[in-house]
Amino acid sequence: MKEMLLPKKLEPFLRKNKRFKVVFGGRGSAKSMTIADLLLMKALQEGAKVGCFREFQMSIEDSIHSLLSAEIERLELPGFTVQGNSIFHENGAEFKFKGLARNPESVKSAHGFKYFFTDEAQTISFESLKNLTPTLREDGSELWFAANLRSMADPFSQRFFVPFEKELRANGYYEDDLHIIIWINYDSNPMFPDVLDQERKHDEKTLSKALYRHIWLGEPYDEVEGSIIPVEWFDATIDSHEKLGFKGSGAIITAFDPSDEGGDTKGLAIRHGSVFTDMK
Description:
Elements: H1 11-15, E1 20-24, H2 31-46, E2 49-54, H3 65-74, E3 80-82, E4 86-89, E5 94-99, E6 115-118, H4 126-135, E7 142-147, H5 155-160, H6 165-171, E8 173-175, E9 179-183, H7 194-206, H8 209-217, H9 231-237, H10 240-244, E10 252-257, E11 267-272, E12 275-279
Parallel strand pairs: 1-7, 1-9, 2-5, 2-6, 6-7
Antiparallel strand pairs: 3-4, 4-5, 8-9, 10-11, 11-12
């Protein structure tokens, strides 16, 4: 068995037990590979059953089955048997694979599992997320998620990013009794390959700032195609009064946009002259 390497930033996944373990970030951050390796170790050490999910899985090729199989071979892990749509270990551990979108409630029949791992979790629906959580009831069981955020309005972002955004933006890390949430990118991956870095540098020069940050830095991507005000223009106004050396003056105005029906959220903005002091 070969030595397993993992980014230092993801060590809390190995050392701490939490109900929810969430990692998100951009391309080249080693999210899926690291989690695959850690779950293979859990299978070896604990004989654990692992449910591997994606929202959309038309066939086994759409799952992480091939990644797990490749890592078993690369790390020379003993005792595993790889079959067409499942992976077993001689100690009783097993990996099962399922798509959630066609029948979100089908996961309720998954009993005896200790770990659930949802890859590409940014696509998960509210219904699927709702059904995953109460199904896993073993003592010490954990739900693992790996994602590259899409919109702030997505169910995944609403559950695991928006409530903890301040801490995640400040530290790239959030932890409480229930959660470990880690924001990781290519610059925290010691195995980040040069060929990907060449692609990253090209994208940095040629893509919009918002799209580059989404692909490589794991930022949510809410830019509307053809919008009058690009995200980078909006971002440039943040704290511009401090950069330009002026303060708010005149009337303090509060605007409130209620939401009576549907999925829209309410909005609140407070400004002092041309300086916005709060926005929700």
